Structure prediction request, 94 residues.
Amino acid sequence: MLDVFITSRVRRKVIVVYAKYPDFKTHVRGLAKLIKEDPGNIQRELRRLEKIGFLKSEKKGNTKIYQTNKQFAIFKELQSIVLKAQRAHRSGKS
Prediction:
């Protein structure tokens, strides 16, 4: 269902992880391992999502750690959409 609205597969996976688990923090390679996507593509999407305010980051040494910005204007709505889409997918309605 989300694929209709978010056409980038990598962006969709990143949004699902950070919307579903708002306290999740990770770096590019950790996320790449989790969602089984290319780190370069993930890094590009993380930058885009940080630029619009959905994600925020902090530097730890040479590593940039990303986390959900719970203050993002439409975070609650986006989180609700992700959770509803996942429930619909699990129940076979997608």
